[in-house]
Amino acid sequence: MNELDTIVQDAQAAFAAAPGPADLENAKAVFLGKTGRITELMKGMAALSVEEKKSRGAAINIAKQSIEAALTERRAALARAELDVQLRAEALDVTLPGRQRGQGGLHPVSLTLERIEAIFASMGFDVADGPEIESDWFNFTALNTPQDHPARSMHDTFYVEGGSAEAPNLLRTHTSPMQIRYAVQHVKKYSAATGAFATALFSGDMPEIRVIAPGRTYRVDSDATHSPMFHQCEGLWVGENVSFKDLKYVFTNFCRTFFESDDLVLRFRPSFFPFTEPSAEIDIQFQSGPLSGRWLEVAGSGQVHPNVIRNMGLDPEKYIGFAFGMGPDRLTMLRYGVNDLRLFFDGDIRFLSQFQA
Ligand code: DAH
């Protein structure tokens, strides 16, 4: 093998052995650099004749081109290898499940409250919200239940700071105080705007009061069907000519819409509440389905007592109406077939997630 072939082979072997781009450039210098083996051969041609230079020069050039070709090839191979390493390091496993954001849902009782609000809104009822810490006046006295009234004993609750020593503030035992609060506020607003006495409330642009007031209520009570915190929804319709007939229509329509069934009947069972006279418990009975045939109590109701109308700032000779108070927790249990009220307040996600739409 001649000298040039040896140099080419040496170069090819050196390039192949270079583990990275920097080593390759060093190896290149050995052959093609200023003092490299090919360069030295070129320098050595100075002493040759013109003829010899031609043939020798051509031979060296061929060797040089072979070395450059080997160099280019090795450079490309190293660059490819480097890219491979990089791609492998940055690889994404597209089959890995993504990190998901847990999707929340509304609490079943909230679903019921939204439903109640939508149904009553469709019948022209306003929706009002009120304080859970209530005064003795709004919770009891204004509702015709003075200090010594025996009906108070059924409403044991949690007393809090504020109010007077004889009549401390309390966590409201029902949503009925909202009857007074809502009426007083709207009577005031109307008389301020019109300069008229409260008895003129129902003329002009506010012909009557029609409102529901859902919210949290409290009593010292706890078992499978009672919770110290529970929900109520108050209803009130007062006008010049609102009767029990309207109550019957409104409540029947509500129940049928709420339970999505015309297959149920209502019973108005005589009862007593200090703030209504006469009063009735409203029971419903499904004519089909798993609860078929049983009477289920869903609300208290009645014609608003004249003393209560007076405490609203209205003339009981002129204004009359009905009120009702129902239990959204109970309605939720009936609608979904839940048998223990406490499930609503345990916060167990296995239970709650079943109500997600
Ligand atoms: N507030 C009553 C209770 O908690 C329920 C009730 C009964 C509300 C009759 C009313 C009503 O508005 O007219 O036991």
**What is the count of helical runs?**
11
| CATH class designation of the largest domain | Alpha Beta
What is the CATH homology-level superfamily of the largest domain? Bira Bifunctional Protein, Domain 2
Q: What structural class is derived from the secondary structure elements?
A: alpha+beta
Bound small-molecule species: 3,4-dihydroxyphenylalanine
Q: What fraction strand? A: 15-25%
Number of strands: 10
Low-confidence stretches: 199-206
Distance between the termini: 85 Å
Number of domains: 2
Numbering strands along the chain, what is their spatial order in the largest sheet? 1-5-6-10-9-8-7
CATH topology of the largest domain: BirA Bifunctional Protein, domain 2
Mean pLDDT: 91
Q: Could you tell me the radius of gyration in angstroms?
A: 45 Å
Give the SSE order as H and E letters: HHHHHEEHEEHEEHEEEHEHH
CATH architecture of the largest domain: 2-Layer Sandwich
Topology:
Blueprint (H helix, E strand, L loop, with lengths): L2 H15 L3 H12 L4 H7 L6 H40 L18 H15 L3 E2 L5 E2 L1 H4 L19 E5 L4 E4 L5 H18 L14 E10 L10 E11 L4 H15 L5 E10 L2 E11 L8 E10 L1 H6 L8 E7 L1 H9 L12 H4 L5
Parallel strand pairs: 1-5
Antiparallel strand pairs: 2-4, 3-4, 5-6, 6-10, 7-8, 8-9, 9-10
Helix pairs in contact: 1-2, 1-4, 2-4, 5-10
The structure holds 3,4-dihydroxyphenylalanine.
Question: How would you sum up this structure, described in words?
Answer:
- With 357 residues, the protein is of the alpha+beta class.
- It folds into two domains: 3-89; 108-355, BirA Bifunctional Protein, domain 2 (2-Layer Sandwich).
- Helices cover 41% and strands 20% of the residues.
- The protein has a seven-stranded mixed β-sheet with strand order 1-5-6-10-9-8-7. A three-stranded antiparallel β-sheet has the order 2-4-3.
- Helix 1 runs antiparallel to helix 2, helix 1 packs parallel to helix 4 and helix 5 (108-122) packs across helix 10.
- Mean pLDDT is 91; it is low at 199-206.
- The structure holds 3,4-dihydroxyphenylalanine (DAH).
- Residues 174, 176, 234, 273, 276, 279, 300-302, 323-325 line the site of 3,4-dihydroxyphenylalanine (DAH).
- 3,4-dihydroxyphenylalanine binds next to strand 8, strand 9 and strand 10.
